Amino acid sequence: MQRCLGHKTQNANESLHNSIWSKCNKSQCHCHDRVKLSMLSGIAEFNFGPTALSHVENEVYEIALGPSTNRLRSACSRKRLEKSKDAAKGKEKARKAKRTEAVNRREADTRRDYGDTGYGAGQY
Fold first, then answer.
1. Where is this region: Disordered (predicted)?
2. Cα radius of gyration (the chain)
């Protein structure tokens, strides 16, 4: 719930449910243990990132993981943190505004060059 204070997700419940059900599909029948593992790993990943899954798998279910799995999860965590930091700095917002401005500029150029001959309500 701490993640929601900074408005980092629009709906925390949907994000949590997505991380749980991505590990255990609702359209198929699964045993109790599979659903429980999906729930624990989904909650751990949602709260602490992909590296928390290693702890759940090692400590709770005694699943041995290789070094490449740990490297991949660490890379995912780093990428997630970088994306979060960029969003916090407003870079993403500025990037989006720049893209929107470019689209609007192209549309204005097209209207200037060809007139208002596009599709629209009441034009024909």
1. 75-124
2. 22
Q: Which amino acid would we find at residue 48?
A: F
**Which tokens hold the place of 56?**
């759940």
Domain interval for residue 43 = 8-65
Summarize pLDDT for 45-59 with one digit per residue, the tens. Answer: 888 777 777 776 777
In a domain, 36, yes or no: yes
76 backbone dihedrals φ, ψ, rounded to 5°: -65, -40
- Residue 23 token pair: 């590990």
Give the whole-angstrom CA distance, residue 33 versus residue 20: 14
Answer whether residue 40 is part of any domain. Answer: yes
Structure tokens at 117: 């001959």
Residue 15 lies in a domain: yes
